[in-house]
Amino acid sequence: MAAQEGTARGERLAELEEQRRQDRVEFRRVWEPIEAAEFGFDQARHLLWRAGFGATPAQISAIASMGPERAVDYLLESPDAPDATPEANLFDRNIMRPYNEEERRMAAQARSARDEDTLARLRAMRQQAQVEDRRQMRDIQRWWLKRMIETPRPLEEKMTLFWHGHFATSYRTIEDSYHMFLQNQRFRKHALGNYGELLHEIIKDPAMLAYLDNNDSRKGRPNENLARELMELFSMGVGNYSESDIKEGARALTGYTFRDDEFVLDRENHDDGRKRIFGRSGEFDGDGFVTAILAQRATGVYMTRKLYAFFVGDLPEDPRDDSPAAGSALDNMRTTFVRKRYDMKPLLRELFLSRHFYSDGVIGQRIKSPAELVVGGVRELRTPVRELAALLDAMALMGQNLFFPPSVAGWSGGRTWINTSTMFVRQNTLAFLLTGRRPSGPDALADVQQYEPDPIMAELRAVFGEGDDEHAVRSVLRYTLGRTPPHAMEALLDVLRRRGGARDGEALRDMLLLVAAMPEYQLC
Amino acid sequence: MDLHDSKAYTRRAFLGRGVMLASASIAAPGFVQSAAWGLPSPGALLTSLAGVPEDRALVVVQLSGGNDGLNTVVPYGMDEYYRARRAIGISKDRVLQLDARQGLGLHPSLAPMKEMYDAGMCSVFQGVGYPNPNRSHFKSMDIWHTADTSGTGDGWIGRYLDNECVGFGKGESGGFEKGLVESPTDGGPPAISIGRDTPLAMQGRKINPVSFESADVFRWLGEDHDRTLKGDYDQLNRRETQGAATSNEAFLTKTALDAQVSSDMIRKAVATQPLVRYPGNDLARQLAMIAQMIRAGLKTRIYYATLGGFDTHAGQGGTNGRHAQLLGQMASSIKAFYEDLKEQGNDGRVMTLTFSEFGRRVSQNASGGTDHGTAAPMFLFGPMVRPGVHGTHPSMNDLDGGDLKHTLDFRHVYAGVLDTWMGADSEAILSRRYRPALVLGKS
After folding, report:
1. Pick the CATH number of B11-215+261-430 from 3.40.720, 2.30.30, 2.30.110, 3.30.1490
2. Domain edges within chain A
3. Which residues from A are below 8 Å from B213, CB to CB?
4. pTM of the prediction?
5. Which helix or strand (DSSP H or E) is residue A397 part of?
6. A120:B367 CB<8 A
7. Using CA atoms, how far apart are residues A310 and A320, in angstroms rounded to an integer?
8. Do the Cβ atoms of A314 and B212 come within 8 Å?
9. Which residues, in sequence order, are CB contacts of B49 under 8 Å at separation 6+?
10. Predicted confidence (pLDDT) per residue in B223-268, tens digit
């Protein structure tokens, strides 16, 4: 009996092995580019959601008519459009500036003389600065959200958001809004640039240095925080380096600090002795350490998995559980990423053109992040923006507070965005955008601006042609959900008919209100 | 007076001894005695999972901002107290006597709490803190929430829920699949926080707590725009899951349905009239809602409420003033809460714990207030608690840079509550063995 079972298991394993081999052959095709004939409205819609924050029917149609190659190039090669929001010198860099020489002397004197009045005054000044800085942080949050909503280059903001989640740094810990702003600008500058260069810069970024305590890391007593997260979360993933690599890497990073807003290598506190990292000896400094990390195979594997999860779909924790299609796509992504020396554009270009990216298991299967839901809601439905602060607040309630990621590991994404509480917050935020009704009790004053669905409906008619109510419902669902589930067709058609049909603006708005409250609306 | 109950059994200890657990009773000696107070709630359908006393609840009350422990439990017997607090000290003749031997008394605004204390329903743990205290509100709060001095990781309640409540009427349907509850959303969510967002303490991996500021926004507000849309909304959101249960779409459909059911249950519960009159403050509002949910038979294990405003840097006041008001709100709300629970016959199954991120400095500052400090007392309420003042008051002479040195790590109190009240394994939850503080029963 046992022997029989053993044989059966052996056969089953051989079968599985054969299946895997065939899959690999089969799934080699997943990386072939999609053909022009296969790239229609639905595919263009998908591309615009994943590489951006959704789009109106006319925008989707325009991208569709470009064909896949030109469409992807259009998204990657940021069209020459002016920024909606200027960026230089927008914010005050001096609010949290540390004491200057004179103030330091004054404080020291007051301390030794037990001059309580002066100490109290200094403390009050600092507290006042903190209050102002928190206000500025809120301004910066609003600035970024506005930018996401208005940008002519959605992929740039999307990648900026990716880097923010990847190199997660929280204002809550560093309490310096200008440093958060500088870091955000750094992410934007490298949004579609080179990952390796960004990794070299991040170890010199004031916000990151403060966040992971590297400004306290000195020769003889290195702080291992940055060295550890640099490998565990920012590049290689856990299990691909040793504790000794962390210790030696931390030595390489000693003295990496900042003064005001600039990186400074504090030579006196930098350990320039020999270190042994990944089995090689040398006088590594921080840059040498990063260069060694970039040469590790694990870095390509880990980074492509993160990018895949952000742009394509959820992945199992253990790579051995990857579907054959995802596994093959990941292999291809890694090969390209490494061959192109971590340039983002060639990688994203191949990904956005691949058959895999447009396959059934991928389109419409990802849960929108709060940023995607809110920014996408405004961009897709062309609702009034209402109130940036209220939208940011709602995003925080949904679990994504910009500039305040929950930990250095960033946002987990996927299903962790969704629970019974966030489900209502999501639905109510869309209701706020569409009706102006604020999703909170005491100050639920309605924003008076009416949402006008007519322009969207005109676009839909231009794309899908004139038709009856059923045709209208079908086009609305295809554009908002990317699918036309029968139960939704039925329910919405009923609403539309009850309320005066597809020519009636209010009826259309009510229909959109219901669409945006559907569980399926959480997907893109 | 032994602060720690060395005999408190963790589940691990039980299993190690080969003791079979026949039912819900984790028999810490103190508990057998205090179980006599526990009356089953009229509405609650109690399922019995081995080792989990389904009908017990813990209410956590967070005092945000850093409550001034020294003006809460006043060490009136120590001259140093009065020297450090010339303007805001509570004079000896005004304190409500707690322990004459130690020279400790309650702030006069805590009269309702004193009544509970005298009735054996309040226990005071002194000098609670943790090593290397952090004086940042955020950081210290994170430390209390995660029970980890780095302030990182999942919340302690979140880990409790993950460890102990998988499959229990958790609003996310897992228990139904495991055959542990009768319907997918039986019993309501395992943890409910009254507030805008979920506190870090309640964040875990597997179980999602429910949070809402007021139950009235825990629903779709689109219907306020047009009531007639509610039926259509329900049609789209109350659907049984179709197709592969593993897809994101199925997950969303299921969560949407769970949300509707939880919303119905909770809003129906809080729509009832409380059985007693609550004072008119926000903590009272929150606790009244919690009492209503308990009365409605929700199987929720943990409730979370918050009272803010304790960051009294300036104009803190003494016997009167801002801090006195806050203490009065806290005490009167908790008192009303237990009167309500008693009317319901549920007081024996609800323990309440209060904490704050830190106490305040020993010396008052130049603005008639106090700055961020360290150790402070923690309170437990309920007829099951071990009444009295426990532990040692921190020295008023041997300070650490003007701050009290803690005499009890808060994680011992968590461990006591988890092991003996919640019947959980505190070692697994706190990732370390903390000797559980003795929290139950008469001493």
Report:
1. 3.40.720
2. 297-358, 454-522
3. 440-441
4. 0.83
5. helix A388-397
6. yes
7. 19
8. no
9. B24, B167, B168, B180
10. 988 899 999 999 999 998 765 568 999 999 989 998 999 999 999 9
Residue B152 host element (H or E): none
- Domain locations in chain B? 11-215+261-430
Q: Which residues pair with B352 in a beta bridge?
A: B59, B381
* Chain A neighbors of B218, CB-CB under 8 A: 421, 424
Tokens at residue B165, please?
């409540």
**Helix, strand, or coil (residue B36):** helix
B390: helix, strand or coil: strand
Say what the pLDDT of residue B295 is. Answer: 95
- Interatomic CA distance for residues B424 and B222, integer angstroms: 41
Determine the straight-line distance between the first and last CA of chain A, rounded to whole angstroms.
Answer: 50
Torsion of CA A405, A407, A413, A416, to 10 degrees: -110
Condensed to tens digits (0 to 9), the pLDDT of residues B330-366 reads 999 999 999 999 999 999 999 999 999 999 999 998 7
Strand B376-381 versus strand B350-356 pairing type: antiparallel
DSSP-derived pairing of the beta strands B376-381 and B73-74: unpaired
Residue type, A330: L
Query: What are the backbone angles phi and psi of residue B378, rounded to the nearest 5°?
Result: -120, 145
**Distances from the Cα of B92 to the Cα of A143, B104, B319, B370, angstroms:** 55, 9, 11, 20
What amino acid occupies position B180?
L
Do the beta carbons of residue B205 and residue B164 sit within 8 Å? no
Please answer yes or no on whether B222 and A431 come within 8 Å at the CB atom: yes
Q: Which amino acid is at A13?
A: L
Q: B88-109: buried (b, 16+ CB within 10 Å) or exposed (e) per residue?
A: bbbeeeebbebeeebbbbbbbb
Interface of B with A in 147-186 (CB under 8 A): 152, 171-172
> Residue A508's closest CA among A523, A497, A520, A519?
A497
Q: B210 forms bridges with which residues in the sheet?
A: B192
Distance CA A74, CA A80 (A): 10
CA distance readout (Å), B226 to A431, A435, B229 = 11, 10, 6
Q: Which long-range contacts (CB under 8 A, 24 or more apart) does B341-344 make?
A: B341/B291, B341/B294, B343/B275, B343/B276, B344/B41, B344/B42, B344/B275, B344/B291, B344/B294, B344/B295
Q: Report chain B residues whose CB lies below 8 A from the CB of A223.
A: none
At position B104, the amino acid (one-letter code) is L
> Tokens standing for A84?
């909606």
Q: What is the pLDDT of residue B164?
A: 80
- A357, A348 in Cβ contact below 8 A? no
Q: Are A371 and A159 in contact (CB under 8 A)?
A: no
